[in-house]
Specification:
By secondary structure, the chain is α/β, with parallel strands linked by helices. The chain is built from 9 helices and 11 strands. The strands form 2 sheets. The protein has a 7-stranded parallel sheet, sandwiched between helices. Strands 1-4-2-3 form a 4-stranded mixed sheet. The longest helix has 17 residues. The chain is elongated and about 60 Å long.
Length: 251
């Protein structure tokens, strides 16, 4: 199996892959004797699209899934070629003054990363930038949580995040970092032009160098008693404030 090949598990993840990324699905394994209507539908859909389907025992699925909740179905998935950092300038130029980048500085929980990617895809983000160190890899859990978004949106892993932030600023992108202690508010920030939104990781938030390379620090106002939001929830709020603002501005 090649380095980009992996198993994805669960009814929703496999069904989404067959619907949105059929060209990357190599094989589907279903639990022999399953009467689940959705699994039957997945099997029929895969066979109709000339994808190899094997019926195997529950024990075999357990072993291949490696502890992931498979619900009676898994698929061998050939992940799309990752977007290289060298492609970022072209993505920014192609956005024609309306680039929206999401920068995730050290999101290490794969469920959080998957949820962030799902929101990013829904919001029309140009690309997601993550550091190669101290970040969750794009594994099967991320792909399942993202509902296929992990392979429908450019995700760029960079070696030096501070250097990348400098480069996108030089390309005319305004970089805003979310920080719960910041004086500015997201609702008072102009997101209608070239913008990168930076989210910190769980617990510690943005690293010092990341913070220093932001043009401004802003926060989501929270009049309630909670001190902070889950990073994927905060990401969704920030991205869709951007969508709200841009809907009122003609391209």
């Amino acid at each position: 199996m090649s380095k980009t090949s992996q198993w994805i598990s669960g009814i929703n993840a496999v069904a989404s892959a067959l619907e949105h990324d059929i060209e990357h699905v190599r094989e589907v394994l279903v639990e022999a004797g399953s009467k689940n209507a959705r699994i039957v539908e997945i099997e029929e859909n895969a066979r109709r699209r000339d994808i190899s389907v094997r019926r195997v025992t529950h024990q075999a699925l357990e072993g291949i899934a490696g502890g992931l909740r498979h619900q009676g179905v898994i698929a061998r998935y050939e992940a799309a070629k990752p977007t290289e950092e060298s492609e970022l300038p072209g993505l920014i130029e192609a956005a024609a003054g309306r680039v929206l980048l999401l920068v995730l500085d050290g999101v290490q929980d794969p469920h959080n990363l998957g949820a962030c990617l799902r929101s990013a895809a829904a919001a029309g983000v140009t690309a997601v930038i993550i550091p190669k160190d101290k970040a969750a890899p794009l594994n099967a859990t991320v792909r399942k949580t993202s509902a296929g978004a992990a392979d429908r949106i450019p995700v760029i892993s960079v070696t030096n995040l501070a250097r990348t932030l400098r480069a996108i600023k030089d390309a005319g992108v305004w970089v805003y970092g979310l920080d719960g202690e910041a004086p500015g508010l997201i609702y008072q920030t102009d997101f209608t032009g070239n913008v990168a939104i930076v989210m910190g990781g769980e617990g510690e938030g943005m690293r010092r160098l990341t913070r220093e390379h932001c043009d401004g620090l802003i926060k989501i106002p929270m009049p309630g008693e909670m001190e902070s939001l889950n990073v994927s929830v905060a990401t969704g709020i920030a991205l869709f404030e951007t969508v709200r603002q841009r809907q009122g501005v003609k391209s």
